[in-house]
Amino acid sequence: MQPLILSGEKFTSRLFLGTGKFASNDLMYNAILAxxxxxxxxxxxxxxxxxxxxxxxxxxxxxGVKLMPNTSGTHNAEEAIxxxxxxxxxxxxxxxxxxxxxxxxxxxxxxxxxxxxxEVLAKEGFIVMPYIQADPILCKYLEDAGAAAVMPLxxxxxxxxxxxxxxxxxxxxxxxxxxxxxxxxLGAPSHAAEAMEMGADAVLVNTAIAAAGDxxxxxxxxxxxxxAGRRAYEAGLPSMGQSASATSPIDTFLxx
Length: 256
Known about the structure:
The chain is an alpha/beta fold. It contains ten helices and ten strands. The protein has helices at about 25-35, 55-60, 75-90, 110-125, 135-145, 165-175, 190-200, 205-210, 215-235, 250-255, and strands at about 5, 10, 15-20, 40-45, 65-70, 95-100, 125-130, 150, 180-185, 200-205.
């Protein structure tokens, strides 16, 4: 399986992890290890900077992964830019997931504010990973604005519904000049495998792992699904047909 190159950095794993909803930091740490993920995102709002007993960041970084702070909880570009700068000062991480969703019910990302934030942060040297709806036109604007990757959703955050935006994701993957990371809505390893078979460069998973009966075992399952899906894509999946095609033609069987 070919490594993923993201803004000049090489990643062996194409499975990225979110860190919300785990029952404990120890469980999260063990799930990260089982997934073999090399890039983990955490919402800046969840980090208690003044609490010396807050072990969230330590639990992530001790697993040896790269930290990708995200701006979840921000309502506009100004707030997201401020949060990204604060994350850089706190953790020294230039890679940031821009996540702006003012809608509290469906948590759908704001395309206009996301584009504004991406333009500013990319000019400041951030490796911007914008979380967006599956909008092919927006993806092209984000590329032009300097996004290092685009992160379209498969379904709304936490719904576990899978690739409900599949037709649009296929267009994005076909047209994109930067890596495409399917983010949000993946609820089963089969969803991740399907995304990789389509040609997605990576997937980001949180709820499906963190809320599973056994998060560590589920992290392992997602790891294997991502590998299988990517290998299938690289091997070249056969085209679909409308009629049957015998694997052992009858004329060959009869010696004709």
